[in-house]
Protein 1
Amino acid sequence: MKTEIPTLDLNTVTAGLSELTRKLVKGAETLMEIDEIDVGTAPKDLVYEEDKLRLYHYRREGEASCNVPVLIVYALVNRQYMLDLQPDRSIVRNLLQHGIDLYIIDWGYPTKADMYLSMDDYINGYLDNCVDFIRKKTKSDKINIMGICQGGTFSAIYSALYPEKIKNLVTLVAPFDFSTNDGLLFCWSKHMNADAMAGAYRVIPGDILNAGFLMLMPFTLNIRKYVDMLHVLEDREKLLNFLRMEQWIFDSPGQAGECIRQFLRDCYQGNKLVKGELKVGDKVVNLKNITMPLLNIYASADHLVPPAATKPFNDLVGTSDKTLYEFKGGHIGVFVGSKSQKELAPAISDWLHKRQDKGESKQKPTAAEKAEARTPSAGSPMRMPETKPQQGKQGKGKELKKR
């Protein structure tokens, strides 16, 4: 039996190559017309800074309908503008439109001067200082905190250590129970030599971590997406959407060696958070101290933080007001998917509005404070010089006032 040898229609091949060449030429022209890839464009003001940390307050067109401000805490390993990647796919803009008063932390880019920053510095130092700043600025006894990915783990730890400062806790695609072996990230992390990494690099380069994340889905993230890009080369807006995501993926800050050492050893390898054995500074973290309302959101198809790492959290906290929310999608889709814009942001807003105290009192601003709030900002704010981090809790940063 003879095997038929497939034949090629030269006219079809020629036409296909001609079309591909046309797309590549058009795409090159489109790329040359793009001067800047705009991300994180929702208007915001820098209100506080400490070392490399920056705290921003998003501007609102009207009064917030939710009377408790929300602090967004993003992961250390990526940039927070994923929540405001582009105007039509922005969790930030969506929450603002639903009446939420938003603040967000930008952790910055660590350098060798930050190699000894620990989880204690980030949580009992920087994060606590930001919370206290917002409480003072808004004259609130408590604020809401919304943690994303690793930032959700940090937010849960913070809420357990300082429950008197947190009104409601919202976590999105955050890992808590590290005992699972679902997903390559959790398998790999259990066998990494955290001491060797921190000792060799001092600050782990973002490119090394990013290469690891890309290898979790090597074909999809390294090959297929660039093949798919050929279909959008002629469309400027779709190409910009692709480039915005690429910028975020490869904009990876380095990681302070001491912090990532403890996070790997105590969480991924020791699973001390759920065991009640995690110690941050001189404080032992007891998740039962989380007595404020909890909204815990996980993604059903998450390849970075599998549901098995997130769902057990609700059984470990001390509150009776706890909601476990399943989002049908992946880790990134939670932030930029069209479904998340229609479903997730409104759900978070509704949950927060239902748990605000209608009669919650705040100190009324003085006449001088009202006048200061009406004064427009002029010029660039003064920046505090960076200082060598000390072991333990950080010193207070600089409040940036309108002048």
Note: The chain has one domain: 44-354.
Protein 2
Amino acid sequence: MSSGRSAGIAVDAAWPAERFLKEVRRRWLGPTQPWWGFVFTLPILVLLVCFKFWPMAYAAWLSLTNGNLTERTWRFIGVSNYARLARDTTFIGALETTGRYVGATIALSMVLGLGLAVLLNQKVPARGLFRTLIFLPAVVPIIVVPILWQFLFNPYGLVNDALKGLGLHPVNWLLSPRGALGALVLATAWRLTPLCMVIYLAGLQSIPGEFYEAAKVDGAGAPRRFRSITLPMLKPTFLVVVVFAITLTVQNFVLALVMTGGGPDNASTTLSLFVYQRGFLGFQMGYASAAALVMLSIIVVFTVGSLRAFRTEE
């Protein structure tokens, strides 16, 4: 009798602990708890902090020092690097070159990309094959692109052969200031246009076909449909293309480094190439970090401006 009573007491004593454990499992270990999302995203968050946010914070601190790889001790110098940038004619020239380079490349890539997207959105024979072939430049390794275009823009290359065939004088593309920048624009647009085309295609395919059918019934021709339906409906897509193209073009320095090396006479030195030259060739890491932060600020300003310019009213 006493043993049965003691067993009942033990069971009763275990009940609160069991209820507590069940409550803990339900609140903290259930499959629907929101913090599970944080657990699953923790690895990528760690990677972002280690390889993106921490380097950015370190570069911001480095821009306030006289960091130089040839010196053991670095000291805090405030905004002296930024003041030096404002007086550096090479940096100012790189800013102007970057503006012309980015503006011409984005304009050319957006126009060609939109035209190709509209064309390949139609029901044309072998449409899938043409889409694949046109997209090939986008998957060519980035280091291959400048080497390929160096051969094309050689004084005895295919571009000058084509000009001679048209009765025009050949151009020394990579050794003249205007020719070097124009060569960079064409080479970058060749790689960027297919990427813009794919984004435009996604936007075009999201436009309901009923809009075009209704416009046809109302007697609207193809130009009117394109102007009144396609362009307004692609406004969010334009935003994606502009932000993507600005970020990719401003940061790209491989083409300028391999094709022209920034020459002749810094005529093709872009901002990203300036950062590379000062940091990894001149060992002036503090000065290069300041220039890199200026480049980041430019990207942010243009991105915010694009968000405002292409903002759609709900």
Note: The two ends are 77 Å apart (CA to CA).
Protein 3
Amino acid sequence: MKQTNLVEILNQQPFGVAELSAEEGNYIFFNEQERIFRGLSYTEMQSASIFELLGKEYSEKLRKMFEQCAASSTAQEYFFKYKSNEHTFQMRLVKSENGNIISSLTDITKLHQLEAQQLVDQENIKCLNDAVTGANIGCWDYYPQEDRIVANKTWVTQKKYKDEDFRVNAEPFSEVIDGLTTWASIVHPEDLEATSKLIEQHLNGETEYYNAKFRMKCGDGEWRWIHDLGRVFLRDENGTAIRMNGVHIDITESKKLEMDIENISITDSLTGLLNRRKFEFLFNNTIIESKRSKNLCCFLFIDIDLFKEFNDKYGHQEGDHVLKSIGNVLINTVQRSEDYCFRLGGEEFGVVFNAEDQQSAVTFSRLIQDNIEALRISHKKNTASEFVTVSMGLFCKRYDKEIDINQVYKYADDLLYKAKKAGRNMLQIDS
């Protein structure tokens, strides 16, 4: 790979890459994104110390971490998190072979899009090579007319494989054995077609950059998420792609964080049920399923009888126990993949399901009601039973393209109100 290409690749990254002196924290090399994150000019960066750029709250902690890193082996990684201007950043630190500190700086509040970056001076090439290794970046060259891939060692070791099993020799950039076939053999089968299409689109000139995220099978048996970024740098006189350069970035931890955040955003933390945010999306799925199966689309609205009075007598800790117990009943009773149960707020729960007819919907609803009372949780303030019970409103409707989720919710709420007025521990059905 040409040196200028390596410079351009690093300047295209959505994270900062820098080499700093271990004692003073002065910048020896920095890429464009590092400069942007720090908010300084090129001249200011050349005279800056990383310790001075952070507030007092962080500078001493970072200085101690630099000392630990400088005293450790080159294989030891250190991670430092800090906040700045409502953003949270993470620095990944390792010691280079020459004793300096290699840092990769990531804005972990969101994932950044690939942006074109300017080339840096040629005298920084050695620092760039150190940075590539320190930042765990797998670099590759792809020759599509030959299905050849040339890659650096990190392209292999990043995925927990032995370098000698994947590359022809141990040169900084060496040909990958069996090229594209080897790459395809470790891409997750569910991701291979979509990723190959993105590559083809870029080779055909339909996109400015190649940008893909997919899973790859690693040498330890795990599937890890890779962010694959690249660009065609050489075409022949007919516009046919001859050479494409890019990088592999392991984003597994970021992906896990993203999925954890998504799971938290749609799940009720107390009961483990889905929350109101997910209700509308999945209700629409049930409508679509009812159209396919020609079944009834049903919404069961559930409310714990006299729950405020229960809390007043037994305390909120016992109230939470009741909510969790009812959540478990719903999880254990609502088991078909196309049926969903929710905590909609407070003591209100919902079940969205399909049924062949109204009688089967009623039978299923009464099963839920009976299973809740069968918990036999004492409730001396309940006028309908000596145990915790629920009132329920059941609304069922055949598929209708005009079906409105807000209208269905209101109908079920009205039925629930009637069940309470009729004495509680009852199921009110739309007639």
Note: Residues 7 and 191 are 30 Å apart (CA to CA).
